[in-house]
Amino acid sequence: MATKGKAAVVVDDKKMEIQEFDLPKIGPEDALIKLELTGICGSDIGIYSGKFKILGIKYPLIMGHEILGRIVEIGAKASELYQAKVGDRVIVEAFVPCGKCKLCLTGNYRICDKGIGYGASVTSDTPPHLWGGYGEYMYVNPGSIVHRIDQDIPAEEAVLAASALANGIRFVRELGQVTIGDRVLIQGAGQMGLVSTIAAHEAGAASIMITGLTRDKDRFALAKEFGATHTINVEKENPIERVREITNGEMADVVIDTTGVPEAVAQSIQAVRKLGTVVSIGLTGFKPIPNFISDLIVMNELRFQGGRSCDFRAVIPAIRLVAAKKYPLKKMVTHRYPLEQAETGVRALAGEIEGEYPIKVVITP
């Protein structure tokens, strides 16, 4: 077995370099995985650029919380807890809860203030160093939430279950409470918009409307394959008026905003019916939202719900849905980069590489 492993480390704002680390000694409650594929999340862009320093992000940092790999070493207690052994293929949830605070004890460990976030909260100069998925290996801390996943599921689809698809399921089903016959508006045709489309379709929505731009033609086509009934080009159509037309004036039962674009967030509360629900999951960069008429929330008795991430209640159904092979999920993964080009992958997703417009970017160590 190897004794060292490489990782892509953010050392400063918009600066990443490949570094080598000693592989850690594994105790009875922890594990080490050899990474098979790591997804690049939109939040990684904010970490890489320095915008999320306001959240306490520090460098040097190995990013990556959409994690798929195989166990190469595992302690006895960890093996019993996870029902996993060396050689098993696993996905690792992004958060390691403290397990003791009120949030954890009520099942809300994804927003635990005392836990660990892979690829975000522990710097790479903190032993055992390998705290993120942008590498050849990753350390699995005691208390992590680990799920086995079938060997025959394509890696590009398996990695989506680790975070993206599970997020969509939670945002749509748990937070949006979408059910049979609902009319759902999804703002944004990126990776979160597409997985939210799948979740809405699985929930039985009668109408699934998804917004995007002129350049989103291919994404709109994929959204249709995932169950969207209507696509709305916001550069050519007024989305509120289009929703009104599609719903015969009744508006959407649920709106899922995946964009974080201030204009879209403001429009969301205008596109939803009275007593409807808006789920907002896109970050604006802690900026105020112009034309956000909060009186509409009061007068129409709306439920405005934030959504940050997922937990086991969404990850488990995501794994099962991927295994069912009902959707061409592999089409979402449009760009693959080797570990040495991880920085290029992040910049591509951020729209900084001319001619590149990826949906989902992954790193192949």
Based on CA inertia axes, which overall geometry fits?
Answer: globular
Mean pLDDT: 96
The arrangement of helices and strands along the chain is EEEHEHEEHEEEHHEHEHEHEHEHEHEHE
| CATH architecture call of the largest domain | Alpha-Beta Complex
Largest sheet, if any? 7 strands, mixed
- Return the CATH topology of the largest domain: Quinone Oxidoreductase, Chain A, domain 1
Helix percent reads 25-40%
Task: Please tell me about this protein's structure.
The chain is an alpha/beta fold. The protein folds into two domains: 214 residues, Alpha-Beta Complex (Quinone Oxidoreductase, Chain A, domain 1), CATH 3.90.180.10; 139 residues, NAD(P)-binding Rossmann-like Domain (Rossmann fold, 3-Layer(aba) Sandwich). The strands form four sheets. Strands 3, 4, 5, 8, 9, 16 and 17 form a seven-stranded mixed β-sheet that branches. Strands 12-11-10-13-14-15 form a six-stranded parallel β-sheet, with helices on both faces. Strand 1 and strand 2 form a beta hairpin. Helix 5 crosses helix 6, helix 5 packs across helix 11 and helix 8 packs parallel to helix 9. The longest helix has 13 residues. 49% of the residues are buried. The mean pLDDT is 96.
